[in-house]
Amino acid sequence: MHRCGVNVIRGSFFLTLVREFISSIYMTKVKDLIENWGTERFEILNTRISDFNLRIGNTLLKKYIDRLYRELNQKGIRFKPKCYLSNEWGCTDGVPTIGIPFYLSDEDIAAIEEEITGDLEDESEIMYLLRHETGHAINYAYRLYRDKEWRKIFGPISKPYREKYRKYRPSRRYVRTKDMNAQKHPDEDFAETFAVWLTPKSNWQKKYRKWGAYKKLLYIDKTMKKMAKKRPIVKGDEFDRPVEELDYTLLKYYQRRGYEIEDLRKEAHGYFDDDLIEIFEPVGKKENFSATKFIKKHQRKLIKNVSHWTGEWELVVRPIVEKFIKRTKELELGLNPKKELQSLVELTALITTVVMNFSYTGRFTLSE
Ligand SMILES: [Zn+2]
Protein backbone atom coordinates (compact mmCIF):
# COMPACT_ATOMS: atom_id res chain seq x y z
CA MET A 1 0.00 0.00 0.00
CA HIS A 2 2.71 2.35 0.96
CA ARG A 3 4.74 1.68 -2.19
CA CYS A 4 1.64 2.06 -4.29
CA GLY A 5 1.04 5.50 -2.78
CA VAL A 6 4.55 6.55 -3.73
CA ASN A 7 3.93 5.46 -7.31
CA VAL A 8 0.72 7.46 -7.49
CA ILE A 9 2.53 10.55 -6.22
CA ARG A 10 5.40 9.94 -8.64
CA GLY A 11 2.90 9.37 -11.44
CA SER A 12 1.00 12.58 -10.84
CA PHE A 13 4.26 14.51 -10.51
CA PHE A 14 5.38 13.14 -13.86
CA LEU A 15 2.05 14.04 -15.46
CA THR A 16 2.31 17.58 -14.09
CA LEU A 17 5.77 17.90 -15.62
CA VAL A 18 4.53 16.67 -19.01
CA ARG A 19 1.54 18.99 -18.86
CA GLU A 20 3.74 21.95 -17.98
CA PHE A 21 6.16 21.08 -20.75
CA ILE A 22 3.39 20.85 -23.37
CA SER A 23 1.72 24.03 -22.13
CA SER A 24 5.00 25.94 -22.35
CA ILE A 25 5.35 24.82 -25.99
CA TYR A 26 1.78 25.94 -26.64
CA MET A 27 2.33 29.26 -24.93
CA THR A 28 5.41 29.95 -27.06
CA LYS A 29 3.55 29.03 -30.23
CA VAL A 30 0.52 31.17 -29.38
CA LYS A 31 2.73 34.09 -28.36
CA ASP A 32 4.78 33.77 -31.55
CA LEU A 33 1.62 33.93 -33.62
CA ILE A 34 0.24 36.92 -31.78
CA GLU A 35 3.30 39.02 -31.10
CA ASN A 36 5.37 38.61 -34.25
CA TRP A 37 6.74 41.54 -36.25
CA GLY A 38 4.63 40.55 -39.27
CA THR A 39 1.48 41.20 -37.22
CA GLU A 40 2.75 44.41 -35.64
CA ARG A 41 3.88 45.65 -39.05
CA PHE A 42 0.45 45.06 -40.56
CA GLU A 43 -1.24 46.79 -37.62
CA ILE A 44 1.07 49.79 -38.19
CA LEU A 45 0.38 49.70 -41.94
CA ASN A 46 -3.35 49.86 -41.29
CA THR A 47 -3.04 52.95 -39.15
CA ARG A 48 -3.77 56.43 -40.50
CA ILE A 49 -0.53 58.40 -40.76
CA SER A 50 -2.05 61.36 -38.91
CA ASP A 51 -2.94 59.02 -36.01
CA PHE A 52 0.69 58.16 -35.29
CA ASN A 53 1.07 61.63 -33.69
CA LEU A 54 4.55 61.89 -35.13
CA ARG A 55 6.75 64.80 -34.08
CA ILE A 56 10.32 65.79 -34.80
CA GLY A 57 10.61 66.23 -31.01
CA ASN A 58 13.67 64.53 -29.67
CA THR A 59 14.22 62.07 -32.47
CA LEU A 60 17.49 61.40 -34.24
CA LEU A 61 16.13 63.65 -36.96
CA LYS A 62 16.23 66.59 -34.55
CA LYS A 63 19.97 65.99 -34.10
CA TYR A 64 20.49 66.19 -37.86
CA ILE A 65 18.45 69.41 -38.09
CA ASP A 66 20.47 70.88 -35.20
CA ARG A 67 23.63 69.91 -37.04
CA LEU A 68 22.34 71.69 -40.17
CA TYR A 69 21.64 74.82 -38.10
CA ARG A 70 25.16 74.63 -36.64
CA GLU A 71 26.60 74.42 -40.15
CA LEU A 72 24.61 77.53 -41.13
CA ASN A 73 25.89 79.29 -37.99
CA GLN A 74 29.47 78.39 -38.89
CA LYS A 75 28.94 80.19 -42.21
CA GLY A 76 27.47 83.12 -40.29
CA ILE A 77 24.03 82.65 -41.89
CA ARG A 78 21.22 84.03 -39.77
CA PHE A 79 18.37 82.30 -41.61
CA LYS A 80 17.33 78.85 -40.38
CA PRO A 81 14.63 77.12 -42.45
CA LYS A 82 11.76 75.64 -40.47
CA CYS A 83 11.55 71.87 -40.83
CA TYR A 84 8.35 69.81 -40.56
CA LEU A 85 7.21 66.24 -41.22
CA SER A 86 5.50 65.61 -44.54
CA ASN A 87 4.95 62.80 -47.04
CA GLU A 88 8.23 63.44 -48.88
CA TRP A 89 11.34 65.58 -49.07
CA GLY A 90 10.60 68.99 -50.43
CA CYS A 91 10.55 72.71 -50.34
CA THR A 92 7.38 74.09 -51.92
CA ASP A 93 8.02 76.58 -54.70
CA GLY A 94 8.59 79.99 -53.22
CA VAL A 95 8.16 78.91 -49.57
CA PRO A 96 11.31 78.58 -47.44
CA THR A 97 10.28 75.57 -45.31
CA ILE A 98 11.61 72.02 -45.49
CA GLY A 99 9.35 68.98 -45.60
CA ILE A 100 10.96 65.77 -44.32
CA PRO A 101 9.41 62.33 -44.86
CA PHE A 102 7.54 61.31 -41.69
CA TYR A 103 8.99 57.77 -41.65
CA LEU A 104 12.34 59.17 -40.57
CA SER A 105 10.85 60.22 -37.22
CA ASP A 106 9.90 56.73 -36.02
CA GLU A 107 12.05 53.60 -35.75
CA ASP A 108 9.29 51.08 -36.57
CA ILE A 109 7.95 53.04 -39.55
CA ALA A 110 11.52 53.57 -40.79
CA ALA A 111 12.06 49.79 -40.60
CA ILE A 112 8.88 49.27 -42.66
CA GLU A 113 10.06 51.86 -45.23
CA GLU A 114 13.32 49.96 -45.59
CA GLU A 115 11.60 46.56 -45.86
CA ILE A 116 9.11 47.72 -48.48
CA THR A 117 11.26 50.01 -50.61
CA GLY A 118 14.65 48.42 -49.93
CA ASP A 119 15.96 51.92 -49.39
CA LEU A 120 16.18 54.15 -46.35
CA GLU A 121 18.19 57.35 -46.14
CA ASP A 122 21.22 57.00 -43.91
CA GLU A 123 22.87 59.78 -41.93
CA SER A 124 24.96 61.14 -44.80
CA GLU A 125 22.02 61.09 -47.23
CA ILE A 126 19.79 62.88 -44.71
CA MET A 127 22.43 65.57 -44.17
CA TYR A 128 22.93 65.98 -47.93
CA LEU A 129 19.15 66.29 -48.50
CA LEU A 130 18.80 68.79 -45.64
CA ARG A 131 21.54 70.93 -47.18
CA HIS A 132 19.97 70.62 -50.63
CA GLU A 133 16.52 71.68 -49.39
CA THR A 134 18.14 74.52 -47.45
CA GLY A 135 19.53 75.68 -50.78
CA HIS A 136 15.98 75.93 -52.15
CA ALA A 137 14.76 77.57 -48.92
CA ILE A 138 17.48 80.23 -48.95
CA ASN A 139 16.86 80.87 -52.63
CA TYR A 140 13.16 81.56 -51.86
CA ALA A 141 13.72 83.33 -48.52
CA TYR A 142 15.91 86.02 -50.13
CA ARG A 143 14.39 85.73 -53.61
CA LEU A 144 17.90 85.23 -54.98
CA TYR A 145 16.48 83.82 -58.23
CA ARG A 146 15.41 87.35 -59.15
CA ASP A 147 19.03 88.51 -59.07
CA LYS A 148 20.46 89.22 -62.52
CA GLU A 149 23.72 87.42 -61.83
CA TRP A 150 21.86 84.39 -60.44
CA ARG A 151 19.86 84.15 -63.67
CA LYS A 152 23.00 84.50 -65.74
CA ILE A 153 24.83 81.76 -63.87
CA PHE A 154 22.05 79.23 -63.25
CA GLY A 155 19.44 80.17 -65.86
CA PRO A 156 15.87 81.43 -65.58
CA ILE A 157 13.79 79.96 -62.72
CA SER A 158 10.82 79.83 -65.12
CA LYS A 159 12.60 77.24 -67.26
CA PRO A 160 10.63 73.96 -67.44
CA TYR A 161 11.96 70.92 -65.58
CA ARG A 162 13.83 68.44 -67.70
CA GLU A 163 12.44 64.90 -67.90
CA LYS A 164 12.28 63.35 -64.47
CA TYR A 165 14.03 60.08 -65.15
CA ARG A 166 16.38 61.19 -67.85
CA LYS A 167 19.94 59.91 -67.51
CA TYR A 168 22.42 62.73 -67.38
CA ARG A 169 25.96 62.58 -68.61
CA PRO A 170 28.54 63.79 -66.10
CA SER A 171 29.43 67.39 -66.83
CA ARG A 172 31.95 69.63 -65.14
CA ARG A 173 29.55 72.52 -65.48
CA TYR A 174 27.64 71.06 -62.55
CA VAL A 175 28.71 69.89 -59.10
CA ARG A 176 28.93 66.12 -58.90
CA THR A 177 26.21 64.41 -56.84
CA LYS A 178 24.83 60.89 -56.82
CA ASP A 179 21.69 61.63 -58.85
CA MET A 180 23.15 64.47 -60.90
CA ASN A 181 20.09 66.49 -59.94
CA ALA A 182 21.74 69.78 -60.81
CA GLN A 183 21.11 69.26 -64.51
CA LYS A 184 17.33 69.09 -64.12
CA HIS A 185 16.61 72.76 -63.54
CA PRO A 186 18.34 76.04 -62.54
CA ASP A 187 16.68 75.84 -59.10
CA GLU A 188 18.05 72.30 -58.61
CA ASP A 189 21.45 73.40 -59.85
CA PHE A 190 21.51 76.15 -57.23
CA ALA A 191 20.36 73.78 -54.44
CA GLU A 192 22.96 71.14 -55.34
CA THR A 193 25.74 73.70 -55.58
CA PHE A 194 24.63 75.22 -52.26
CA ALA A 195 24.71 71.75 -50.61
CA VAL A 196 28.32 71.25 -51.73
CA TRP A 197 29.24 74.75 -50.53
CA LEU A 198 27.61 74.21 -47.09
CA THR A 199 29.10 70.74 -46.46
CA PRO A 200 31.92 71.01 -43.92
CA LYS A 201 35.30 69.91 -45.30
CA SER A 202 33.90 69.55 -48.83
CA ASN A 203 37.10 71.23 -50.03
CA TRP A 204 35.21 72.81 -52.91
CA GLN A 205 37.84 75.51 -53.50
CA LYS A 206 40.36 72.84 -54.45
CA LYS A 207 38.15 70.10 -55.84
CA TYR A 208 36.18 72.29 -58.26
CA ARG A 209 38.81 74.90 -59.12
CA LYS A 210 39.11 73.75 -62.71
CA TRP A 211 35.44 73.01 -63.20
CA GLY A 212 32.76 75.09 -64.90
CA ALA A 213 30.76 74.71 -61.68
CA TYR A 214 33.43 76.74 -59.84
CA LYS A 215 31.92 80.09 -60.79
CA LYS A 216 28.60 78.93 -59.31
CA LEU A 217 30.28 78.07 -56.02
CA LEU A 218 32.07 81.43 -55.99
CA TYR A 219 28.75 83.19 -56.60
CA ILE A 220 27.14 81.36 -53.66
CA ASP A 221 30.14 82.12 -51.42
CA LYS A 222 29.99 85.82 -52.30
CA THR A 223 26.19 86.10 -52.07
CA MET A 224 25.95 84.25 -48.76
CA LYS A 225 28.54 86.53 -47.20
CA LYS A 226 26.40 89.46 -48.30
CA MET A 227 23.09 87.91 -47.13
CA ALA A 228 24.37 86.25 -43.95
CA LYS A 229 23.11 88.80 -41.43
CA LYS A 230 20.05 89.98 -43.36
CA ARG A 231 16.50 89.13 -42.43
CA PRO A 232 14.77 86.94 -45.01
CA ILE A 233 12.24 88.67 -47.25
CA VAL A 234 9.90 85.67 -47.34
CA LYS A 235 9.10 84.01 -44.02
CA GLY A 236 8.49 80.28 -43.89
CA ASP A 237 5.13 79.83 -42.22
CA GLU A 238 3.37 77.60 -44.70
CA PHE A 239 3.61 73.85 -44.62
CA ASP A 240 2.63 71.78 -47.62
CA ARG A 241 1.02 68.45 -46.72
CA PRO A 242 2.10 68.33 -43.06
CA VAL A 243 1.95 64.93 -41.36
CA GLU A 244 -1.11 65.97 -39.28
CA GLU A 245 -3.09 66.24 -42.52
CA LEU A 246 -2.10 62.87 -43.97
CA ASP A 247 -5.39 61.18 -43.11
CA TYR A 248 -4.82 57.97 -45.06
CA THR A 249 -3.23 54.72 -43.89
CA LEU A 250 0.42 53.84 -44.25
CA LEU A 251 -0.75 50.99 -46.48
CA LYS A 252 -2.35 53.50 -48.88
CA TYR A 253 0.81 55.58 -48.75
CA TYR A 254 2.85 52.67 -50.15
CA GLN A 255 0.17 51.67 -52.65
CA ARG A 256 0.17 55.23 -53.98
CA ARG A 257 3.91 54.98 -54.40
CA GLY A 258 3.36 51.84 -56.48
CA TYR A 259 4.43 49.16 -54.02
CA GLU A 260 2.68 45.79 -53.92
CA ILE A 261 2.21 44.90 -50.26
CA GLU A 262 -0.54 42.31 -50.15
CA ASP A 263 2.08 39.66 -49.34
CA LEU A 264 2.70 41.30 -45.99
CA ARG A 265 -0.83 40.30 -44.95
CA LYS A 266 0.22 36.67 -45.05
CA GLU A 267 2.86 37.22 -42.39
CA ALA A 268 0.39 38.95 -40.06
CA HIS A 269 -0.69 35.79 -38.23
CA GLY A 270 -2.15 37.60 -35.25
CA TYR A 271 -3.90 40.42 -37.14
CA PHE A 272 -7.53 40.82 -36.02
CA ASP A 273 -8.10 44.56 -36.44
CA ASP A 274 -10.48 44.24 -39.40
CA ASP A 275 -12.66 41.73 -37.50
CA LEU A 276 -12.75 43.91 -34.39
CA ILE A 277 -13.65 46.97 -36.45
CA GLU A 278 -16.52 44.96 -37.97
CA ILE A 279 -17.91 44.00 -34.56
CA PHE A 280 -17.38 47.32 -32.79
CA GLU A 281 -17.48 50.95 -33.83
CA PRO A 282 -15.47 54.07 -32.97
CA VAL A 283 -15.84 54.98 -29.31
CA GLY A 284 -16.28 58.60 -30.40
CA LYS A 285 -20.11 58.73 -30.22
CA LYS A 286 -21.53 60.05 -26.95
CA GLU A 287 -23.67 57.05 -26.01
CA ASN A 288 -20.97 54.49 -26.84
CA PHE A 289 -18.80 52.93 -24.17
CA SER A 290 -15.37 51.36 -24.39
CA ALA A 291 -15.09 48.00 -26.16
CA THR A 292 -11.97 47.32 -24.07
CA LYS A 293 -13.96 47.58 -20.82
CA PHE A 294 -16.68 45.45 -22.36
CA ILE A 295 -14.28 42.60 -23.21
CA LYS A 296 -12.60 42.89 -19.81
CA LYS A 297 -16.00 42.58 -18.13
CA HIS A 298 -16.70 39.29 -19.93
CA GLN A 299 -13.08 38.11 -20.14
CA ARG A 300 -13.29 35.27 -17.60
CA LYS A 301 -16.52 33.79 -18.99
CA LEU A 302 -15.35 34.10 -22.59
CA ILE A 303 -12.13 32.21 -21.88
CA LYS A 304 -13.87 29.53 -19.83
CA ASN A 305 -16.71 28.89 -22.27
CA VAL A 306 -14.72 28.96 -25.51
CA SER A 307 -12.17 26.64 -23.91
CA HIS A 308 -14.96 24.28 -22.80
CA TRP A 309 -16.79 24.08 -26.15
CA THR A 310 -13.72 23.95 -28.38
CA GLY A 311 -11.90 21.52 -26.10
CA GLU A 312 -8.84 23.77 -26.33
CA TRP A 313 -6.79 24.78 -23.30
CA GLU A 314 -7.50 28.08 -21.63
CA LEU A 315 -3.91 29.05 -22.21
CA VAL A 316 -4.65 29.08 -25.94
CA VAL A 317 -7.82 31.17 -25.57
CA ARG A 318 -6.49 33.67 -23.01
CA PRO A 319 -3.80 35.36 -25.17
CA ILE A 320 -6.39 35.89 -27.94
CA VAL A 321 -8.81 37.62 -25.59
CA GLU A 322 -5.92 39.67 -24.17
CA LYS A 323 -4.90 40.62 -27.68
CA PHE A 324 -8.46 41.80 -28.40
CA ILE A 325 -8.37 43.93 -25.25
CA LYS A 326 -5.09 45.51 -26.34
CA ARG A 327 -6.20 46.18 -29.92
CA THR A 328 -9.64 47.60 -29.09
CA LYS A 329 -7.85 50.04 -26.77
CA GLU A 330 -5.31 50.97 -29.44
CA LEU A 331 -8.05 51.36 -32.08
CA GLU A 332 -10.28 53.28 -29.64
CA LEU A 333 -13.26 51.04 -30.34
CA GLY A 334 -16.57 51.21 -28.55
CA LEU A 335 -20.09 49.88 -28.70
CA ASN A 336 -23.62 51.10 -28.33
CA PRO A 337 -25.26 49.83 -25.08
CA LYS A 338 -28.25 48.68 -27.14
CA LYS A 339 -26.00 46.35 -29.12
CA GLU A 340 -24.34 44.76 -26.10
CA LEU A 341 -25.87 41.31 -26.54
CA GLN A 342 -25.28 41.23 -30.29
CA SER A 343 -21.64 42.27 -29.80
CA LEU A 344 -21.12 39.57 -27.18
CA VAL A 345 -22.49 36.89 -29.53
CA GLU A 346 -20.31 38.12 -32.41
CA LEU A 347 -17.24 38.36 -30.21
CA THR A 348 -17.76 34.82 -28.85
CA ALA A 349 -18.20 33.50 -32.39
CA LEU A 350 -14.99 35.23 -33.50
CA ILE A 351 -12.91 33.93 -30.59
CA THR A 352 -14.30 30.42 -31.14
CA THR A 353 -13.43 30.54 -34.84
CA VAL A 354 -9.92 31.78 -34.15
CA VAL A 355 -9.36 29.03 -31.57
CA MET A 356 -10.76 26.36 -33.89
CA ASN A 357 -8.48 27.56 -36.68
CA PHE A 358 -5.57 27.13 -34.30
CA SER A 359 -6.70 23.63 -33.27
CA TYR A 360 -6.90 22.40 -36.87
CA THR A 361 -4.14 24.31 -38.63
CA GLY A 362 -1.84 25.70 -35.91
CA ARG A 363 -2.67 29.21 -37.16
CA PHE A 364 -5.23 31.80 -36.15
CA THR A 365 -6.05 33.41 -39.47
CA LEU A 366 -6.68 31.56 -42.69
CA SER A 367 -6.11 34.33 -45.17
CA GLU A 368 -3.29 32.65 -47.13
ZN1 LIG B 1 15.52 69.97 -55.08
User: What is the CA–CA distance across the termini?
Assistant: 57 Å
pLDDT < 50 stretches: 1-6
Name of the level-1 CATH class of the largest domain: Alpha Beta
As laid out across the biggest beta sheet, the strand order is 3-5-4
Structural class: mainly alpha
Count of alpha/pi helices: 15
Main pleated-sheet profile: 3 strands, antiparallel
Order of helices and strands: HHHEEHHHHHHHHHEEHHEH
CATH architecture of the largest domain: 3-Layer(aba) Sandwich
What proportion of the residues form beta strands (DSSP E)? under 5%
Overall geometry comes to elongated
Bound molecules: zinc ion
Topology:
Layout: H1 2-35, H2 37-45, H3 60-74, E1 82-86, E2 97-101, H4 107-117, H5 123-141, H6 148-154, H7 186-198, H8 204-207, H9 214-227, H10 250-256, H11 263-266, H12 273-279, E3 281-282, E4 289-290, H13 291-310, H14 314-330, E5 333-335, H15 340-361
Parallel strand pairs: 1-2
Antiparallel strand pairs: 3-5, 4-5
Helix pairs in contact: 1-14, 3-5, 5-7, 7-9, 13-14, 13-15
The structure holds zinc ion (ZN).
How would you characterize the overall build of this protein?
The chain has 368 residues and is mostly helical. It has 2 domains: 23-47 and 266-361, no CATH class; 51-245, Collagenase (Catalytic Domain), CATH 3.40.390. It has 15 helices and 5 strands. The chain has a 3-stranded antiparallel sheet with strand order 3-5-4. A two-stranded parallel sheet has the order 1-2. The radius of gyration is 30 Å and the shape is elongated. Mean pLDDT is 90; it is low at 1-6. It binds zinc ion (ZN). Zinc ion is lined by residues 132, 136, 188, 191.
